[in-house]
Amino acid sequence: MRITQWLVFLASLSLLFRAGYAVSENREQVTTSSVTFVLTADMPNISDARTGRYANLQTLVKQQRQISETVFFIFGGGSIGPSALSSFDRGSHIIDILNSLEPDVMGVTKREFSFYEDELSLRSYEAAFPLVASNVIDNRVGRSPDGLHTSVIVEKEELTLGVISVLHERVIEEYQLSDIAITPPQKAIMEESKRLRQQGADIILLHYSYPFPFINTMLNKRIIDVAFITDSRLDEKNMLETTRHPNRMVLTQQGTAVVASFVKNAGWQATSYIEQPLEDIEADAELNEQLIEYEARLKRLLNIQIGEWKIAVSTARKEVRSEENPFVNFVADTIKRYANTEIALINGGSIRGNKQYTAGTPITRQDIVTEMPFRAHVVALDITGAQLIQALEEGLSQYQNLKGGFPHVSGMSYSFDPSAKVLQRVKNVTINGKRIDKSKTYSLATSNFLANGGDGFYALKNTEKRPALSTRPPQISDLVMQAIVNQYDIKPKTDNRIINMAKGG
Hints:
- This protein is of the alpha/beta class.
- It has two domains: 31-292, Purple Acid Phosphatase, chain A, domain 2, CATH 3.60.21.10; 305-503, 5'-Nucleotidase, C-terminal domain (5'-nucleotidase,  domain 2, Alpha-Beta Complex).
- Helices cover 34% and strands 25% of the residues.
- It has 17 helices and 27 strands.
- The strands form seven sheets. A six-stranded mixed beta sheet has the order 4-3-2-1-12-13, with helices on one face.
- Strand 12 (256-264) and strand 13 form a beta hairpin.
- It is globular, with a radius of gyration of 27 Å.
- The termini are far apart.
């Protein structure tokens, strides 16, 4: 071939290449990518008709994987604890069940620390899927807790998903995590987003469980593409307006799952969105058998009658976190009697059953472990009247948010004004019928969790601890069970030991 002919040939190849590249580039511009997300969370209790719908969830996930080309199943955590069964296995059964559902990734929330960071690390190694906590540092090693990821990449059908999950620093206080630090979530999101983009992420999803105010800005600036907030209290706190954004997915209630589809044009846009009640979906037979096996194990351990309710009793979440409650009175009286102290204090958040019991129904060990799944024991303190008032104020400081710190008492009474300023809500306190003396020292029974400042009870942390009641103190749940065995016919009552002045008390 002559040189001139060769040059012409090369020029022709160049033109063909450019034309092909132009066609390819044009195709890239008009091609759209689509993705479907299945997202749910807050399923700690497999025995609960609302939060135990794992078999129904399996059916939903299978259906979506069949009808959609690219499906990512994101589990938003909130499920390692607390529950009756997790009090025995520290949440291993939840990981085992999730392994059968095969989520692509699980975000970590504060409930995953129900049994502290070392147990969470063990659960991460049992999981066949990654657990993500982007802003959690183990102070002992100066990095993420063993087994947890700061972010992950998941690839499907030529689409790459990056996942970030952040927590609020309140987890340290609420769960007494002395070895854990929470770095600023906004900074962590920025850093992980940059890293994921460099790794080729086509779409970045942020999972979180606290309504951070900067999320919409990050979505608008495309630092993240979609956001998923999991908080079963959103419906109670009426916070949907604060989380509203086209690319923001919100799980408003337990027992539901979000199914959302997005398409990419200039940016990612939602094309469909539904929050599906899981009870409306047929249960997967195979996974249901797995749940039945765990239920049978739990019944073998705990299905032993220890007493009988003689009146109707409620442990509804809203009630135990906002007002005097007969069952919590029974618990407070029990720990006061065991510790032989003048007064007792316990927090409403330690009661987790959220159940209604009718008169005449039996009380089983499972009922009490379900109500009190934490491994707390009784601690005796010496506390001044001034410190006690401060502790009550701290417990009432987030009354409007139904936080777990709501203070229940024994051997004393108090009134409060929920409309007053924070730390100015306690109005009248009496102990054994006498007005409290701020300078006097009283003996107080409480849980080791509260004695260490849990749920914001800093005043208790600064008190004088009495000698341990036992070298191996029994759990509070065991004390309550024994009290029920001793009485058998249980008729807990209210006696105006807590008065809400806004209700005319």
